[in-house]
Task: structure prediction
Amino acid sequence: MTGEAQTRFCFITQPHSISTSSEVRHSDISGAIAPG
Result:
């Protein structure tokens, strides 16, 4: 993903995580792909 795509993805899944670090972003992406 590009930076822009990641931002949009996080906005859809976790709107409050936009301003957080890549550490949280990575966690959000993993959780969204494999929930639970």
Q: What stands out?
A: The mean pLDDT is 58. The radius of gyration is 9 Å.
